[in-house]
């Protein structure tokens, strides 16, 4: 029996460098990664409240 595997990425620099995928589908199951907010150039869009 052969199990199919598909990956999905956004072509961000770290995906190729670290082997990171946004999602991996193995058979009938989809595994989603944790997400980091970033713009289309890969720059972090993390906002921190500096008042506290």
Automatic annotation (TrEMBL):
SUPFAM superfamilies: YjgF-like. It comes from the Bacteria. InterPro entries: RutC-like_sf. Gene3D superfamilies: RutC-like. This is Uncharacterized protein.
């Amino acid at each position: 029996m052969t199990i199919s595997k598909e990956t999905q990425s956004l072509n961000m620099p770290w995906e190729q460098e670290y082997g990171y995928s946004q999602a991996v589908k193995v058979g009938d199951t989809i595994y989603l990664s944790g997400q980091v907010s970033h713009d289309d150039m890969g720059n972090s869009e993390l906002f921190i409240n500096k008042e506290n």
